[in-house]
Amino acid sequence: MSAARPGPPLARGVLDRAAHRRTDADWLAEAWTRSRVLVVDDGHVLVRGDDPPELVLIDPADAPQGERFFLGEDTREDAGGSVYFAVAADVTVLPDTRRANLRQIGHALPDLPAGLFITAVGLANWHSRHPYSPLSGKLTVPAQAGWVRTTEDGAETLWPRTDPAVIMLVHDGVEGPDGCCLLGCNAQWPAAGGIRRYSTLAGFVEPGESAEMAVAREVLEEVGVVVGDVTYVASQPWPFPGSLMLGFHATAEVGAPIEVDPTEILEGRWFSRAEIAAVLDGDSHAFGLPFPASIAHYLITEWLG
Length: 305
What we know:
- By secondary structure, the protein is an alpha+beta fold.
- Helices cover 21% and strands 29% of the residues.
- The protein has six helices and 15 strands.
- The strands form four sheets. Strands 10, 11, 12, 13, 14 and 15 form a six-stranded mixed sheet that branches. Strands 1-5-4 form a three-stranded mixed sheet, sandwiched between helices. Strands 3-2-6 form a three-stranded antiparallel sheet.
- It is globular and about 65 Å long.
């Protein structure tokens, strides 16, 4: 029996978020003194090494000033009850370290640091975008260990929000190396060395719309192709700035003509499994594909395999 294929690279985590601790001020104050702290700066953290990269976690006594978020506890039997916080502040590069973001290293991190990194970035991004209440314009401050913001008078509470977005690999349903998938080159992506990068199509779910409806609408809008058999595959948080990517496969007629919306898609093309495999194996540099930390890469390799 074959082993189960792991899920999307950033949909991992073994951390107990311990939500019941977020309102326990005494416990949080004590836990901070024995915690490990991840400093996050505009989506970047410090890492060292490459195989795999290691997050630089510091002692609380060395943590810079900044908004503080309780990430959770590692309650696994061999973890010793480790506690983790994040602080949003400038990251100063230390000897033998470098700045890195999720796109660069997210796929290469083990489960625990991957969960710490994406949670810290997601919270930091949300806090940075909500210094004021959208209802009253009043100043807001972090509360409940960084998991909400409240107005200073306590009259309003803001909760972190996640925007649902769909991301879909459209394919023709043909088995074997001649089967094709439809990928697009975003109009905003510069060509690197003259080589265009292609990825799956994506878009936000609109009010009054199911995820499956959004898949069909976005594909039709972006490349003029009608799809059916919309099948959910997996999801992955994507804090750029605060999305949850809902991944789907969808089928279209073999060789369906493509008519792109030029404001969003520079070019849409059908690619065979053989072409995709050659690029992933490094045997071809005819075009670029999504970076490994993305769910787009996961959807493509799921279809390929």
